[in-house]
Amino acid sequence: MRLPVDRGPLSTEVRKVLQAEPGSARAADLVPVAAEALRTTDDLLADDDVQLTLFVLYELHHRGFDDVDDRWEWDTGVLAARGLLERALESTLRERVPVPDAVPARRRAVADALFAMTAPRPGPSVARYVWRHAEREQLVELLVQRSIYQLKEADPHTWAIPRLTGAAKAALVEIQADEYGGGRADRMHSALFARTMRGLGLDDTYGRYVDAVPAVTLASLNTMSMFGLQRRLRGAITGHLAAFEMTSSLPNRMYGDGFRRLGADLDTTWYFDEHVEADAVHEQIAGRDLAGGLAEQEPQLVADILFGAAACLYLDDLVGTHMLGAWERGESSLRAPVTAAAEGAA
Fold it and tell me: In whole angstroms, what is the distance from residue 169 CA to residue 171 CA?
């Protein structure tokens, strides 16, 4: 992947810095530019310039960019700017996201709270819309929106493995082993999602559609990276994964049926069908053994476990509301339309 197109003064300055020689004194200038971007934003979660910048800075810890020297990953100027932005992101989420309180630090109590938070709700959802109403163009948009995370599926949560111990660590490894295909590259969930993209005529190259997705989609992924990269937020990344797994099985059944309604074959729906079965198991492990187990091991993390789960649900709702609102208005949910090959699923 190459650096995405700038979306404002901050991401423009970041591009200039990252394309220079590592160690350039110019990196120190990122902090005041980042501070100004935060001062002038109307809504951090919908700010394209800020969220793209965070995405770029976090991507240095994922697979990097073809046109950026890997030595920038640990540059102190870059890290200082990222720290300023992610503290603002965390603060925004803590202000906006409602979190259950007075949950005892016991395995069953934490698991019960998470199952209550993630219980299916009536009303509109992206999954129900895809199941019953979506047209092929909207299936394409769904895959483009999801590709920003799904082509690296599980990676942000995997950062939590060395931060945990005992039963919680074992539970996380069990979940992640399935996400990575149990040692078979062709069964990795990211690889299955790539097959689904190809089934609709999309380019499955990692990062191919970053320029097309809106800020709120990037904010959802940035939150995962923020939680996973910081040891002090190990409770939050654990809760995030629990909520992620506990809200996966039923929606993926709807997605699969929606794709089949428009003629998708088994190869194209494999990703969704795999998650129906796998995540029905994962949700129990994630809720009881991972999140509940961590709460008993480290009782001081209960609030953060619930915060991470609530943040996952809150951001999923924001992205879903954005997509459904655009579709109901007859508009694209993307910043720029994406044209897929005609030999897709419909």
Answer: 5
| DSSP three-state, residue 245 | helix
Q: Is 22 exposed, middle or buried (0-12, 13-18, 19+ CB in 10 A)?
A: middle
248-285 pLDDT, tens digit per residue, is 989 999 999 999 999 999 999 999 999 998 778 889 99
Structure tokens at 346: 């419909």
Question: For tokens 């494999």, what's the residue?
Answer: 270
Full set of structural domains in the chain with CATH:
9-96 (no CATH), 107-328 (1.20.910.10)
Burial 308-344 (b: 16+ CB within 10 A, else e): bbbbbbbbbebbbebbbebbeeeebbbbeebebeeeb
**How far apart are alpha carbons 315 and 217 in whole angstroms?**
8
Q: Are 150 and 190 in contact (CB under 8 A)?
A: yes
For the chain, the C-alpha Rg in angstroms (whole number) is 20
Query: pTM here?
Result: 0.95
SS3 letters across 275-334: HHHHHHHHHHHHHHHHHHHHHHHCHHHHHHHHHHHHHHHHHHHHHHHHHHHHHHCCCCCC
